[in-house]
Amino acid sequence: MSNRILPLELIDKAIGSPIWILMRGQTELTGILRGFDDYVNLVLDDAVEYSPDPRNKSEIVTKRLETEILLNGNHVAVMVPGSKGPADSMASQAT
Amino acid sequence: MQTAGRLIQLSYLLRAFTFAWRSSRPAHRPIIASDPSLGGHRRGSFEGALAENHSAMSAKGGRGSGGGKRDSILELAKLIDQNVRVKCLGGRELRGALRGYDELVNLVLDDCDEFIRGWLGVETRISGYSNDPEKITNKTRKLGLVVIRGTQVSLVSPEDGTEEIANPFLDGGEEDGEDEQEEE
C-alpha cells in the first residue's frame, strides 16, 4: 500500500460526525466535530466530558456541556472519529 | 654576515612556498592533519572522522545536519501496516497497525487498543486492580481507527522487534522496582 493516510486529513473527514477525544490525563470528551485548526484546537458540539472525580478517584464525572465548545488542543492525545465514546468501548472490554 | 643574509633568503623562500602552497589548495577544503596531500602519516581518529564526514556530506548533498525537508530520525515509512506500540506523554499506551503519519509524528492507527491503567472506576471494580494510574495492565479496550497527536507521542516501536523477557533487575535484587519489559 503506497498510499498512506494523513492524520489531519482523517480528522478533516470526520467534521460533522461524532468524535471521541482522549486527553493527556484521564479526561475524555465526546461530541460532534465542527472544526479544527493547525494546532488541533477543536470545536465540538453537544459535548460530554468524562473525567475522574477529584474527590473520589474511582468515580467518573459526566458533564454535559450545553453549547458549542472550543477545546484547547494542547492536551489532546488521541482522537477516535466516528465513535460515541467510552460507553461504546467499555462494552467490548473482553480482552 | 653571510649567514644572516642566508637566513633572510631562506625565510623569504619559506614564505613564498607556503603562500604558493596555500593558494594552490581548493578554497573550500580546510587544512586537516590527515589530508593525503600533506603527506602526513598521523591519522588521529578525530581528524579521520572529520575527513570522512566532509566527504560523506559533500557526497550526499548535505543531508543530516543541513537537512532536507522531510528528514526524520524515525523512518515511519518502514513501519506502515505493521503493528506498533505507541506510548503517550500522559502514560497512555496504545497498540495498532500504523496506517499513516506526517512529519509532526501525528499517527493514524487501525484496530487500535488502549492498555488500561489502574484508575477507571468500572475496570478496577471488575478486575480488582488498585487505583494507580501509573500501573499499566495487560488489559485493553478497543478504540478502532484513531489519530494520535504527535505532540503527545513519546515512543513508537514495532511490536515485531520486541519480546518479553524476565526482569533482569530482580537477580541480586536491591534496585528499586524496575518496570518489566512488555510486549511480545
TrEMBL record, chain A:
GO cellular component, one term: Lsm1-7-Pat1 complex
Statement: the UniProt record of this protein carries the keyword tRNA processing: yes
Entry's Gene Ontology BP terms: mRNA splicing, via spliceosome; rRNA processing; tRNA processing
Domain of life per record: Eukaryota
Domain (Sm): residue spans on this chain: 6-85
Keywords: mRNA processing, mRNA splicing, Nucleus, Ribonucleoprotein, RNA-binding, rRNA processing, Spliceosome, tRNA processing
Subcellular location, principal: nucleus
Family matches, as InterPro entries: LSm5, LSM_dom_sf, Sm, Sm_dom_euk/arc
Subunit record text: LSm subunits form a heteromer with a doughnut shape.
PANTHER family: U6 SNRNA-ASSOCIATED PROTEIN (PTHR20971), U6 SNRNA-ASSOCIATED SM-LIKE PROTEIN LSM5 (PTHR20971:SF0)
Family stated for the protein in its record: Belongs to the snRNP Sm proteins family.
Protein name: U6 snRNA-associated Sm-like protein LSm5
The organism's taxonomic lineage, starting at the top: Eukaryota, Sar, Stramenopiles, Ochrophyta, Bacillariophyta
From TrEMBL, chain B:
Subcellular location: Nucleus
Any Pfam family hit: LSM
Stretches assigned to the Sm domain: 71-162
GO cellular component: catalytic step 2 spliceosome; Lsm1-7-Pat1 complex; spliceosomal tri-snRNP complex; U12-type spliceosomal complex; U2-type prespliceosome; U6 snRNP
Gene Ontology biological-process annotations: mRNA splicing, via spliceosome; nuclear-transcribed mRNA catabolic process
UniProt source species: Thalassiosira oceanica (Marine diatom)
Predominant location: nucleus
Composition bias, Acidic residues: 172-184
One Gene Ontology molecular-function label: RNA binding
Stated name of the protein: Sm domain-containing protein
Tree of life domain: Eukaryota
InterPro entries: Lsm7 (IPR017132), Lsm7/SmG-like (IPR044641), LSM_dom_sf (IPR010920), Sm (IPR047575), Sm_dom_euk/arc (IPR001163)
Keywords: mRNA processing, mRNA splicing, Nucleus, Ribonucleoprotein, RNA-binding, Spliceosome
